[in-house]
Amino acid sequence: MSRFANAFLASVAAFFDMTFRLPCAALLALSVFASAPAWASGAAPSRKSAVSEAYLLFEPFQVSVLENYRVRGMVTLEVYLQVPDEDLRHKTEQGMARLRDAFVRALADYGTHVAQADRPPDITIISHKLQDAADELMGPGAHVLITQAYVRRTG
User: What would the DSSP string read from start to end of 21-82?
Assistant: First the structure.
């Protein structure tokens, strides 16, 4: 490269470095000063909000997809449970292990009898099975939400 090209590229880099550094510093300062009233009151900033307290997250579920008595794939699901009522939320938190077990049994039935390794999971069937299991254990009021569902072929 010529000396002129090097000088030009250095000046362009310096311009962009200054141009991007200033807005980033301003955003950082704004975020620090905006959260200062919460720190001044003595309360640590809370990550939980009223919306997130209404949802309970389960660890991802993984279920085998069986075809001709062989594992041909794995269904992976990410499931939330919306529990708007505080009494029901407390009851649900107490019974999370039983609820997870009921969900695993319902999904095992789906993986054995319905799922196919070369097709996407049927969210309608899965959500009905999980909702029936939740209603049976906790009573009506909680709603099952599936945020991710996919099949990975294994063989």
Answer: HHHHHHHHHHHHHHSHHHHHTTPPPPS--HHHHTEEEPPPEEEEEEETTEEEEEEEEEEEEE
pTM of the model: 0.66
Per-residue pLDDT of 47-100, as tens digits, reads 444 457 789 999 999 999 999 999 999 999 999 999 988 999 999 999 999 999
Say if residue 129 is in the same domain as residue 65.
yes
Contacting residues for 80 by C-beta, under 8 A, at least 6 apart: 55, 56, 57, 58, 144, 145, 146, 147
Q: Tell me, yes or no, whether 24 and 83 share the same domain.
A: no
Give the single-character DSSP code of 84: -
Q: Domain residues for 34?
A: 3-40
Say if residue 84 is in the same domain as residue 143: yes
**Which of 136, 95, 129, 89 minimizes the C-alpha distance to 109?**
129
